[in-house]
From TrEMBL:
<dbReference type="InterPro" id="IPR013221">
    <property type="entry name" value="Mur_ligase_cen"/>
</dbReference>
<dbReference type="GO" id="GO:0005524">
    <property type="term" value="F:ATP binding"/>
</dbReference>
<keyword id="KW-0547">Nucleotide-binding</keyword>
<keyword id="KW-0479">Metal-binding</keyword>
<dbReference type="Pfam" id="PF08245">
    <property type="entry name" value="Mur_ligase_M"/>
</dbReference>
<dbReference type="GO" id="GO:0046656">
    <property type="term" value="P:folic acid biosynthetic process"/>
</dbReference>
<dbReference type="GO" id="GO:0046872">
    <property type="term" value="F:metal ion binding"/>
</dbReference>
<keyword id="KW-0289">Folate biosynthesis</keyword>
<protein>
    <recommendedName>
        <fullName>Dihydrofolate synthase/folylpolyglutamate synthase</fullName>
        <ecNumber>6.3.2.12</ecNumber>
        <ecNumber>6.3.2.17</ecNumber>
    </recommendedName>
</protein>
<dbReference type="GO" id="GO:0008841">
    <property type="term" value="F:dihydrofolate synthase activity"/>
</dbReference>
<keyword id="KW-0436">Ligase</keyword>
<feature type="domain" description="Mur ligase C-terminal">
    <location>
        <begin position="295"/>
        <end position="413"/>
    </location>
</feature>
<dbReference type="InterPro" id="IPR001645">
    <property type="entry name" value="Folylpolyglutamate_synth"/>
</dbReference>
<dbReference type="Pfam" id="PF02875">
    <property type="entry name" value="Mur_ligase_C"/>
</dbReference>
<keyword id="KW-0460">Magnesium</keyword>
<comment type="similarity">
    <text>Belongs to the folylpolyglutamate synthase family.</text>
</comment>
<feature type="domain" description="Mur ligase central">
    <location>
        <begin position="52"/>
        <end position="193"/>
    </location>
</feature>
Length: 435
């Protein structure tokens, strides 16, 4: 086999995007073969592995599990996707983003393994997942938290057996790959479950197929509203009660609301308890109080950024904003991909939107601002501006905001990433002007 060429991280990512004929190619045979060659299947990835699947809430649940574990003194690794600004965001080791050298070494290990013997073709996501798993194995954390990419059963992350499997929510998304049957989607997500390992069901509205899969494979079920629950307490506080192996029911009082779905917070706590971690009330309070997850109800001044891009996520955003009265207008800066349910998202956000700015995203899957604007107006919304890019929409809107107005930026990871970068550039420019 020829020597693996030296590449920068950016060059590796560009190379990986070009070597497989399609971007998404569900199935475990190819990725499992390369994982076997890399030695990833011969030993446990970590003493505890928690895998998180679902339609919405995966990223925030992973972040909460990680933060809570670190507050309890555990060493951790967390793998998530997609990223917002830097690929390095996808892998965190003890809370810090992986550096370029770690990721490059992982890609080199993947490339050497996939070209050994009979070459194996991998997608960008599959190669990235294997590189992350390789880095995690070498970091030797006490807890690894893995976020499933798209499905579950056939997702590259599922080559690793989970000690605790978490299903957050089930809703319609990625219909081209997962279909529109919620029961079928539930079965795909439930494919991360393993016999004898706890299955945490983090929503009270999961299709019956999820529980049926857990029962069929012999995974003990811990369900929200049954084996664990949360209750609202004082303003911005909640109480959690869960279940552990000995059928004890630990409870935690006066926990701070992390500004994320409390269903997910309760699920994160139960996942750690199921993994054998004795939860300390003080440590949990500290972790939840200090937690910040980029792109999830992230406030930057008057701007709220959230990657929600389907009706279920949009409904949560509208609910959260409705509990935070605004003296001025609420603007929605919306950009979406063509394969997403724009009508459902618009309907969910219409209850809080006073005005809309529709934008066009770049790329083959983009939906034009004019298309979005037409759909908004068909539902009775007022579109103040149509922009050719997220940045153009933000520039137009920023010059017209009243002091008491607020802006919700949502509809896509690409949308939030663009506005985050725009905000950073704006701050840098203002910093230079002040010198």
């Amino acid at each position: 086999m020829a020597a693996i060429p030296s590449r920068t991280l950016e060059a590796w990512l560009d190379y990986l995007e070009r070597i497989h004929p399609v971007g998404i190619d569900l199935g475990l045979d190819r990725v499992a073969e390369v994982a076997r060659r890399m030695g990833l299947l011969a030993n446990r990835l970590a003493p505890r592995v928690i895998t998180v699947a679902g339609t919405n809430g995966k990223g925030s649940t992973v972040a909460m599990i990680e933060a809570l574990a670190r507050a309890h003194g555990l060493t951790t690794a967390a793998y998530t996707s997609p990223h917002l600004l830097r690929y390095n965001e996808r892998l965190r080791l003890d809370g810090a983003e992986a550096d370029d050298a770690t990721l490059i070494a992982g890609f080199e290990a993947v490339e050497a393994a996939r070209l050994a013997d009979e070459p194996v073709s991998l997608t960008y996501f599959e190669a990235g997942t294997l590189a992350a798993l390789w880095a995690i194995a070498r970091h030797s954390p006490e807890l690894a938290v893995l976020e499933v990419g798209l499905g579950g059963r056939l997702d590259a992350v599922n080559v690793i057996d989970a000690d605790v499997a978490v299903i957050t929510t089930i809703a319609l998304d990625h219909a081209a790959f997962l279909g529109t049957d919620l029961a079928g989607i539930g079965r795909e997500k439930a494919g991360i479950m393993r016999a004898g390992s706890p299955a945490i069901l983090g929503s009270g509205e999961l299709p019956d197929s999820v529980r049926q899969c857990a029962e069929a494979c012999g995974a003990p079920i811990l369900a929200l509203g049954q084996e664990f629950r949360w209750q609202a307490g004082a303003p911005d506080r909640f109480r959690w009660q869960g279940t552990v192996d000995d059928d004890a029911s630990p409870s935690l009082e006066d926990l701070p609301d992390p500004g994320l779905p409390l269903d997910n917070a309760a699920t994160a706590l139960q996942a750690l308890a199921a993994a054998g971690i004795a939860l300390d009330e003080v440590s949990c309070r500290l972790a939840l109080r200090e937690l910040r997850v980029p792109g999830r109800m992230q406030w930057l001044g008057q701007w709220c950024l959230d990657v929600g891009h389907n009706p279920h996520a949009a409904g949560y955003l509208a609910e959260r904003l409705s509990t935070q009265p605004c003296r001025g207008r609420t603007w929605v800066l919306l950009g979406m991909l063509a394969d997403k349910d724009a009508d459902g998202v618009i309907e969910a956000l219409a209850t809080v939107a006073d005005g809309w700015v529709a934008v066009t995203l770049a790329g083959e899957r983009a939906r034009a601002a004019a298309d979005l604007a037409g759909r908004i107006e068909d539902q009775g919304g007022r579109v103040a501006y149509q922009a050719e890019s997220p940045e153009a929409g933000a520039e137009w809107l920023s010059g017209r905001l009243a002091p008491d107005d607020r802006v919700l930026v949502c509809g896509s990871f690409f949308m939030v990433a663009a506005i985050l970068a725009w905000k950073q550039a704006q701050s840098a420019w203002l910093g230079q002007e002040g010198k």
